[in-house]
Write a structure and sequence with these properties.
The chain is of the alpha/beta class and 241 residues long. 37% of the residues lie in helices and 29% in strands. It is built from eleven helices and twelve strands. Strands 1-4-5-6-7-10-11-12 form an eight-stranded parallel beta barrel, surrounded by seven helices.
Length: 241
C-alpha cells in the first residue's frame, strides 16, 4: 500500500480546503517545493498534487509551483486539476509528471480519457470525486447524475492506471477516511483504487490497509496538523505494526 501525501496548490501556496470549498482554504506553506522535499526526505515514495485553481479554471494555473516541485524531488508525482486536453497532458508528462489524474474529463469526455490511456500507457488515472455516492466535477462545484461505480466501470478495460476515489463530504474534515466505500469500489472494478478524503490519524491508515484491496491512501490535513505521523503511516503501509 502506498501513502500519498497531498500538496494542494492554490495561488502558488500549499493549502487544504474544507469539503472542497475554495473559500475555506488553510495555507500550510508558501513554499510547495520545500514541502515536497520534506515529504520525500521522510520516505514518501510518491507525491499527490492538485492544481486547485486549475480544476476550476479548466486549465493549468499553478504550473510554476508544480515545475518547482518536480525540480526539487526525485520520486514519481501524480497531478490532477485543469487537465482537459491532450496538449496539456503532453506538457505535464514532458515536464516530468508520472501520472495524470483526469476527473472532470472522465465524466464530460470519457472517450478522450480512453484515448489518453492508449497514447500514454500507465500514465493516466481517473479521479472520481463523490458527494453522496454521486460524481462531482469542475473542481467539485458541479454535481453529475452518475453514480461512482457506474463511472468507474466505463473505464474497466481502458488501461487506467488507478482510480483516486475521494469522499468530498469528508475531505479536509478530519472525520475519518471512507475506507468502506473505496473498498466497495475496488471490489466492483479491476482497476487499482486509492482512497482519499478525511484521513484523521494512524487508525485510518490501518483501516485502509486492513481493507486488503486498496492500492493506497491520500492524506493531507492530518499530516499538516500533526495528527498523523508520516513516518508511522509509511511503516504501516509497508506492512509494519
Amino acid at each position: 500500500m502506498t501513502v500519498y501525501p497531498a500538496i494542494d496548490l492554490k495561488d502558488g501556496n500549499c493549502v487544504r480546503l474544507y469539503k472542497g470549498d475554495m473559500e475555506a482554504a488553510t495555507v500550510f506553506s508558501d513554499n510547495p517545493a520545500a514541502q515536497a522535499r520534506e515529504f520525500v526526505d521522510t520516505g514518501c515514495p510518491w507525491l499527490h498534487l492538485v492544481d486547485l485553481n486549475g480544476a476550476f479554471a479548466g486549465e493549468p494555473v499553478n504550473a510554476a509551483a508544480v515545475d518547482a516541485i518536480l525540480a526539487a524531488v526525485d520520486v514519481p508525482v501524480q497531478l490532477g486539476g485543469g487537465i482537459r486536453d491532450i496538449a496539456t497532458m503532453e506538457r505535464w508528462l514532458d515536464a516530468g509528471i508520472s501520472r495524470l489524474i483526469l476527473g472532470t474529463l472522465s465524466v464530460k469526455n470519457p472517450s478522450l480519457v480512453k484515448e489518453a490511456c492508449k497514447l500514454f500507457p500507465g500514465k493516466v488515472a481517473v479521479g472520481i470525486d463523490a458527494k453522496g455516492g454521486m460524481v462531482a466535477v469542475e473542481g467539485w462545484a458541479e454535481a453529475s447524475e452518475l453514480e461512482v461505480t457506474e463511472l468507474a466501470l466505463k473505464f474497466e478495460d481502458a488501461g487506467v492506471a488507478a482510480i483516486i476515489h475521494t469522499d468530498i463530504d469528508r475531505d479536509g474534515t478530519l472525520t475519518g477516511v471512507n475506507a468502506e466505500a473505496s473498498s466497495d469500489l475496488a471490489k466492483a472494478v479491476s482497476i487499482p483504487v486509492i482512497a482519499s478524503g478525511g484521513v484523521k490519524d494512524i487508525e485510518d491508515i490501518h483501516r485502509v490497509a486492513a481493507a486488503g484491496n486498496l492500492e493506497g491512501v491520500v492524506t493531507g490535513r492530518a499530516i499538516y496538523d500533526g495528527r498523523l505521523d508520516l513516518k508511522e503511516a509509511l511503516k504501516v503501509a509497508k506492512g509494519g505494526a
